[in-house]
Amino acid sequence: MRVCLDATPLLGPRTGVGQYVGHLVDALAEIESGPDLTLTAFSARGAGGLRAPRGHRVVHRPVPARALQAAWARIEAPPVELLAGRCDVFHGTNFVLPPSHRAKGVVTIHDLAYLRLSDTVTPASRRYRDLVPRSLRRAAIVVCPADSTADDVAAEYGLPRERVVATPLGVDEAWRTARPLSTQAREALGVPERYVLFVGSREPRKRLGDLVAAHGAAVRESAAVPPLVLAGPAGWGAQVEAPDAAVTGYLDTPVLQSLVAGATCLVLPSAYEGFGLPLLEAMACGTPVIASDLPVHREVTGGLAELVGVGDVGGLAHALVEVSAAPADQAAAHARRRWAAGWTWTRCAALTLAAYRSAAA
């Protein structure tokens, strides 16, 4: 089976979607008798950053992504074969599925933030309001990162649930063996010995204002609550003032893994998520997690996290105090690691390949 994937998210720094595409491609390439893969990118800047696994290929025609999306939101042209060559299945990995002559379509819808929290996303994401409905009409199969997200997408667009397939994300093995940063590495980042950690883009739907307020209240209540560290790119929107927090910016994956492994806890207070991969990665390290009480967070953390209602600053502060004061619990850490071990990119790739085969049939 010839499968072409939109690998545009692999260009530049790897954010969440880029991590998904990169791990998916690598895991698909490891499947015995798996698909013949072609990676393409919808970009005028070139595809020099794309590297296909051995035995597979990159095909790229430099065309501005915005011009392509403007066309695909209105008409059924240009077809993807003109840009990426012939294939049996084309996988739109990031909300957008181009029209095609013959290729069957699979599209990944990561979340519905562009609909449910449209004032918190970028203008590029708001364009999904027009692009996604057309993509869904073109798709034989829709894939989502979690069952709860698949339920949401099917309900929102009136799709038969069997057309919307969950292909849960995975955790790379390196997270399970990560060790805390050395003293020298911590000091170079400006990170204290003990710390509460947030990982992700600093964007409105992450509700960092709630975290900063809750952390301040928790520190006033208990001296056991350590300082706050914010890791990840600046993102967009109004930036939350956090004068007492250490801000690391974007970190390469090995450094981030060690930062997560050494945290007192990882906190994700988002108003909405399509998956919540930082929670699962922290659990793979054995690190305690605190998160907003969302259906997808309940699914991903399996009852092993402290969950707090969205916007409940007092509840979040209480959770920070409780987790920070709790003694190290090796049994709980082992349970978190064991739970995270069940989420693999091998499983994600196998379920995705099954979606390709279903689409082709």
Summary keywords:
single chain; alpha/beta; about 350 residues; 16 helices; Rossmann fold; about 15% strand
Under the CATH scheme, the architecture of the largest domain is 3-Layer(aba) Sandwich
Tally of alpha and pi helices: 16
Strand proportion, as a percent range, falls in: 5-15%
First-residue to last-residue Cα separation: 11 Å
Give Rg in angstroms.
Answer: 21 Å
CATH class categorisation of the largest domain: Alpha Beta
Based on Cα principal axes, name the global outline: globular
Q: Ranges with pLDDT <50 over ≥5 residues?
A: none
Class computed from helices, strands and strand pairing? alpha/beta
- The CATH superfamily name of the largest domain is Glycogen Phosphorylase B
Main β-sheet, spatial strand arrangement: 3-2-1-4-5-6-7
Which fold name corresponds to the CATH topology of the largest domain? Rossmann fold
Counting DSSP E segments of at least 2 residues, the number of strands comes to: 13
Helix content: 40-55%
Domain unit count: 2
Task: Summarize the main sheet.
Answer: 7 strands, parallel
Order of helices and strands: EHEEHHEEHHHEHEHHEHEEHEHEHEHHH
> How would you state the average pLDDT, rounded?
95
Would you kindly provide a written description of the structure presented here, covering whatever features stand out?
With 361 residues, the chain is of the alpha/beta class. The protein folds into two domains: 2-170 and 344-360, Rossmann fold, CATH 3.40.50.2000; 173-341, Glycogen Phosphorylase B (Rossmann fold, 3-Layer(aba) Sandwich). It is built from 16 helices and 13 strands. The strands form two sheets. The chain has a seven-stranded parallel β-sheet with strand order 3-2-1-4-5-6-7, sandwiched between helices. A six-stranded parallel β-sheet has the order 10-9-8-11-12-13, with helices on both faces. β1 (2-6), α1 (16-30) and β2 (36-40) form a beta-alpha-beta unit. α1 (16-30) crosses α16, α10 (208-221) packs across α14 (313-325) and α12 crosses α15. The radius of gyration is 21 Å and the shape is globular. The model has no long low-confidence stretch (mean pLDDT 95).
